[in-house]
Amino acid sequence: MMKNNNSTLYEKSQDLDAFLTSWDAACPTGEAAENFSYKGCTYVVPDHARGERECRFSGLRFSWGARSFTPEKGEPARFFIDGQGGRSERFSLYMDVTDCGDEEGICPTAFFVYREGEPQPLAYHLGGQITGLYSQNDFSPLKSPLTPGCYFLLADGLVDDGESSVFETLGDYVCLPFVVMEAGDRLEHPSVLSARASRPKHTLEEGPWTSGMLRLKLCLSAPLRAGRELSAVCYTEDWRQMAHDERLQASDKRGEQTLQLHFRSDLIWMPGRYVVVLCHNREPFASVAFDYRGEADMPCVCRSLGPGDAEALLAKSLANHAAWQRTRDFSGMARLRLQLAALLPKSDYNSFCQEQQLAELRENVYAAVSADVPFHAKRLAYCLPQMLNYCTTETRQVDVEAWVKEDDPEAMLEERAMHALTLYNIGVFCLAEGRACLAALEKAVADSFTFWALTLCGTEDELQRLFACSPVLDRHIRPEYRFRVERPVVSDTLHALQRVIGETAFRLDASAENALARQVMQCHDVVSLWDNNEQTCYVLRGLVGRIKQRIHGQYDSIRKPTRRELVTVKAEDIALADWIQALKEASDEPVGVDEQAFAESMKELEAMVGLRTLKETLSTTFCQVRFKERRRRMGLPVGEETASHVIFTGNPGTGKTTVARLLGRIYRALGLLSKGEVISTERRELVGEYIGQTEEKMNAILRRARGNVLFIDEAYSLCTDSDDRRDYGRHVVESLLSVLTEPHPDMVVVLAGYDDEMERLMQSNPGLKSRFPYKFHFDDYTADELMQIAGLTLERGGYRLTPEARELLRDTVENALAHKDRFFANARWVNRFVTSGILPAMARRVMAMDVAGKDVELYCTVERADVAEAIRLRATASASDAKSRPRIGFKA
User: Fold this and answer.
1) pLDDT tens-digit readout, 230-279
2) Domains in the chain and their CATH numbers?
3) pTM of the model
4) Long-range CB contacts for residues 411-419, cutoff 8 Å, separation at least 24
């Protein structure tokens, strides 16, 4: 964006005396270009350059230091100042777009600020505007402090090009009046003696749940003094703004003790609790609460607010703070907004310190945000550092699933100083592969010498499981920093639908508003789960479709409908329950095959090294599924559908987990799963320590697994040879059977383990084996296949083996296969040997050499010596591993 930063007379001044001298030179006494009259007073315009061109503009913002208003957006033209008047502050005028007629043209412009009744300007800006995208015009310093009163901005050479003019015309000039008022935090406020809310009876004729007017009658302890403003904002029970109104007491009149505020809202007034926050010169001083149940008159509860009350802090933040304003449309925040507001005093203190250039109060903030929809937790977590002024310098979001794949778990946390870190997919911490990262996180949280902030995001179930796994995190995340985003309240859901309808050309009449409100209340359990796409789908396909059908059925060629009738939504058009039923029936139909996703996943499966028999079997299985799908589309019988649950057998490192991930994606592409992700678990995460806990854990994991692949590794450990009914692993199997017997569970269960042990598991429960129609065995890799895997690993890293190194590596692989046992890790072994053995040995060899210049080959070529050193180190580590290797399975 191009910025027009005009040079002005005062910018050449080095101090106040120099400025005053230049002012006198530019504006000699008695030599004004002309005088003009405004509201019965005569004002002097200093001599300044004038041209034939006029600058057109749009997008105006007028500021006084950190305070500003934008009249084009309907903001009141008012500044609120402290008692000292801020003499050091300056006026600035910003315009989004300026147009002088051509790219080369310069329009002389001049701006002056006057106080009404004083002939000389208080501040001015002289300069030229050029065609551009942005213009900033800084005024000269004030001669005296700014005091409360009526002022105006006078502009020469300017034409308002906005949709609605914000300037008054005064001959050749344009004028923008504004008011300077004393900030409300230093004023004595009236108290609210009584209040009464009401809705006009005519608005309730079609029903109680309509948009439109709500009145609030106030009785104050004292009338408003001259030049004071009373403003009010009405909030719903979850602190979303419903409507606002304000009263400005004229400077020459005495205010009334009884006031009536009018809240006109385009949103439907729903049953529930409403809170009106009253402000005196923008400072909250009272709240008025009432319950609306569809009646015309409502009693109110009045309460005075102090500067530190949560309602006062929340109202000011929602009005003035950009980060809080971003959360205005967040749903499920009914209790959460007040909880967050209670933490604002510390934030305000840090803001004060920053303004005064003092050291902030730095305290590590550890928070947790939970929501049924993880996205809702993540978006709130992103706003928290700004909302609560953490004083951090950077905000980062980290996927824990990606973090656990890194070689060094602590590396991600090494640069956490001054950062606000948000972690999501936190359920991985409780799995075996996440333990190292969890330990690193616990160590960082316990370190009080490094200043940083942490927010954990997930579902409530994920957070509870994490806290059970990590007492350290449970202890450090205090209750006041545990935030729960709840399901949307009814007004949340209804107003979201209204906003989507408002984006179309259609408008609800009163009967349609009542019908929509009632049906949302009836169907809220379903509608509250809709995202924006589902809401839009209902409006554009369901609602608009019924409108078209109604108009078509009632069309009369003699009396054609008016345009207003064509865009008016009637009660009969809503039919929300019918739309939900249609969605349910559609969801029972086969989703169909995503050919591209299926082909990509199968290509990835084929690219895996080895597993020839498995690939052939899976390909046949998938072809059969697609074959049945096409017969179904043709109306041909397909027979009784069988479940798709699978058993994987084989030794470690043979690709079972990788294939399970591909299986989820392939089943998703075939329409057999709604999500297609893999939920990995094992015995210790499923079996409880007391009666009832196992069922709780299983229910939680089964909820997560809906739509996905549930992968249970070492599944044989769920049952021992013991007949002891206190073995809670048996309860896991029994819980699984409830899912395995469902005809369409939207879940694929994969049990994995050693061949013999898995067979004993199947024999342990008569109903188990028949529920797994597919069984795939993963053979151990051959020497050629392991060499191929090692070669791919090196190739991805940009390395290559010398012939001698390749020969020694093959000898090593063949020797490992000749002496392998059932614990041999196959692909995992060879990858570890390359990444943790050969490459570190190569690095030590190369860095020990005194090589001048940059020899690329040296850094890419793996020598025989590197493999030999890896063998030596591996032999030492293997001897140690053999002594400490644990037993697999359970002793009878």
Assistant:
1) 999 999 988 999 999 988 876 555 667 899 999 999 999 999 999 999 99
2) 4-182 (2.60.40.2550), 186-326 (2.60.40), 336-485 (3.40.50.300), 490-587 (1.10.8), 595-778 (3.40.50.300), 783-884 (1.10.8.60)
3) 0.60
4) 412/440, 413/440, 413/441, 413/444, 416/444, 416/450, 416/452, 417/450, 417/451, 417/452, 418/392, 418/393, 418/394, 418/451, 418/452, 419/392, 419/393, 419/394, 419/395, 419/452, 419/453
